[in-house]
Specification:
Strand order of the largest sheet: 3-2-5-8-9-11-12
Largest sheet: 7 strands, mixed
Order of helices and strands: HEEEEEEEEEEHEEE
Protein name: FecR domain-containing protein
Shape: globular
InterPro entries: FecR
Helix content: 10-25%
Distance between the termini: 78 Å
Radius of gyration: 21 Å
Structural class: alpha+beta
Length: 153
């Protein structure tokens, strides 16, 4: 009888170690900012899932943000950068790092259509040149604090 109980505890310990190993091996998605305003239709696609944008919702690195006719979307990133998309816009959040203590500062995004207002935050202030916006016409690099307005045909 005792041997059965010992085997049971050993099995539970093995399962517990397996769960810890799985948890350590899988990386949680990093929330890089939050939705501040939405004018429908506005969606974002992240990790293969497309969702209707909602105020207060977290935005993940690598997300694709889209607005339809009459839509708008406002975001605030963790460093204070503010992004506003107008109607029929599409913005991909390519890269985002905000770890000032480690000197890891970068923000890159690609606007493929529509309009964007970008008010730079701490990344641009702390590391000029670390904020980049790609468009079909070229690349813009912010060399410090700026308010950028872009409208694509």
């Amino acid at each position: 009888m005792r041997q059965g109980k010992g085997t049971w505890w050993l099995w539970l310990a093995g399962v517990g170690l397996g769960v810890v190993a799985i948890a350590q091996g899988s990386e949680l998605p990093e929330v890089i900012g939050y939705v501040r305003s939405v004018g429908e239709p506005a969606n974002f696609t992240s990790r293969g899932q497309t969702n209707t944008a909602r105020v207060g919702q977290g935005v993940l690195r690598g997300a694709l943000l889209q607005t339809g006719p009459g839509g708008s979307l406002g975001l605030v990133l963790n460093d204070g950068t503010r992004l506003s998309l107008g109607p029929r816009s599409e913005l991909h959040l390519d890269r985002y790092r905000f770890e000032p203590a480690r000197g890891a500062l970068a923000f890159e995004a690609s606007l493929s259509r529509g309009s964007l207002s970008l008010v730079s935050g701490d990344i641009a202030r702390l590391k000029p040149g670390a904020v980049r916006l790609h468009t079909p016409q070229g690349e813009m690099v912010l060399a410090g604090e700026a308010h950028l307005l872009v409208r694509l045909p």
